[in-house]
């Protein structure tokens, strides 16, 4: 990494907003193409990997998935799962592996198209106003934690924390903990609390699950070999960008997250949380339905793997299929507020594109409007969004290809007309 500075009035060829793996990937490719640029990061490079994950976080994708332009995982555990700090150090090592021109501690608050003949973009930043021929948004798509409206109905004595800010059990007061949401964060945090001996209640969402291993190999390795991560958003439909990722864990070398087994260990499973009434959190009666759905998705993935093995003539061990270890016997009913001391909200994030101002790069629903990261505004690009081009686009596995595509477009369509 090559720390640089910007000053009020500077003109820069390309400004990359965001100093995570996506922004660094574009920087790597722009350097290779000899293109003038800077990376603006509002905090420190790749800080999110350390500052926005819990202490026992691990990747859910195998380490061999970790590959960026000119940089791949070369550690001793290609089929293992890096911890939070290991991921941070690996991506930080990427930043240090080449001379990415990075400006840390600078926030971009507004991007405008000036209409001037030579400088199409004006960026208002905490370090002053600069102009640029191109702008790349590499900030991802998950910006602001979300909370349901009824969170305000919980008594002040109950601690509320979002998964974004959860680090460990010691943050929370004594008593039971209600975790709301069963995406990757919610299920892993619920397990983390259960391991720590806490009384845990889990409000289920609609997330599917996937087995960790099947027929001798990690399921995500099977899916990669099958080309699933190369399937494009256009093929699956744009609605896919709103889908919830399958829950599984890489903890302790990787294993399934089976909510039914959590119930056998004492975790209270509830349907979707609806709100507070009569001194209790109330839920709908959908526990069985949600568990059956999650299991059906996991089994359908196994069906696809079976078909691939048979089609390709692969010699793989045969494995017995999953059988439910627990089934609900009825509606557990409301959860008295007196039984919990904290709520961990794991119900997602929303995007914040306010810094784009009136730039016409969002669709009518407020989503980035692009074709593989290229927008209708010449010189403005997105990178690192979930399902931006393929299922792999929001993951380490797909960033390199997407970054190369953007830079190829930049080189093929220069925007500056300055002498």
TrEMBL record:
SUPFAM superfamilies in alphabetical order: FAD/NAD(P)-binding domain
Molecular function GO terms recorded: flavin adenine dinucleotide binding; monooxygenase activity
Protein's name in the database: Flavin-dependent oxidoreductase, MSMEG_0569 family
Bilayer-spanning residue ranges: none
PANTHER family assigned to the protein according to its UniProt record, in alphabetical order: FLAVIN-BINDING MONOOXYGENASE-LIKE PROTEIN (AFU_ORTHOLOGUE AFUA_4G09220), FLAVIN-CONTAINING MONOOXYGENASE
Pfam families (UniProt xref): Pyr_redox_3 (PF13738)
UniProt KW keywords: Oxidoreductase
Coiled-coil positions: none
